[in-house]
UniProtKB/TrEMBL annotation:
Keywords: NADP, One-carbon metabolism, Oxidoreductase. It comes from Chryseobacterium taeanense. Belongs to the dihydrofolate reductase family. Pathway: Cofactor biosynthesis; tetrahydrofolate biosynthesis; 5,6,7,8-tetrahydrofolate from 7,8-dihydrofolate: step 1/1. This is Dihydrofolate reductase. InterPro entries: DHFR, DHFR-like_dom_sf, DHFR_dom. It comes from the Bacteria.
Length: 163
């Protein structure tokens, strides 16, 4: 199973200047619970925004830069190559961003794990439109903002509709 994991605002905004738009500890825990023990695929800019390999996961970074190297990370030149390596490690793989990587993987994903943040924020990076003919929402859990989580948000699961 190939799952895309993303946190986005009400207009599908996901980032600004290579940073997330919010700090939601519950979402970070949800992300860790979903992805721990599995390969994660991300673009170079997303990796650089995180700053280090995510623990307890095989970190696969897609980069067109031939001279880029990072210890503890598998660097590949294409999504196809990243998925091939990830599937050798585990049948369950996670795509974690950023915007260009999401665009290139919507067709191959089986599931979307979305944190939908109840916010409308300035952004320069967006998640692709979710086609309701292709994706069916199968779960939704609401979380109210609190002293640690600055916005209301929902965890949503979408599964690909099989014709």
């Amino acid at each position: 199973m190939t799952t895309i994991v993303v946190a986005m605002g009400e207009k599908n905004e996901i980032g600004f200047e290579n940073q997330l738009l919010w700090h939601l500890p519950k979402d970070l825990k949800h992300f860790k619970d979903l992805t721990s023990g599995h390969p994660v695929i991300m673009g170079r800019k997303t990796y650089e925004s995180i700053g280090k390999p995510l623990p307890n996961r095989t970190n696969i970074v897609v980069s067109r830069k031939n001279d880029w190297f990072e210890e503890g990370v598998l660097i590949v030149g294409s999504i196809k190559e990243a998925v091939k390596f990830a599937k050798k490690i585990d049948e369950e793989i996670f795509i974690i961003g950023g915007g260009k990587i999401y665009e290139q993987t919507m067709d191959i994903a089986d599931r979307l794990e979305i944190t939908r943040v109840k916010a409308d924020l300035h952004a320069d990076t967006y998640f692709p439109k979710i086609d309701e003919k292709t994706w069916k929402k199968t779960n939704e859990v609401f979380h109210e903002k609190d002293e640690k989580n600055q916005y209301d948000f929902c965890f949503q699961t979408y599964d690909k509709v099989i014709d």
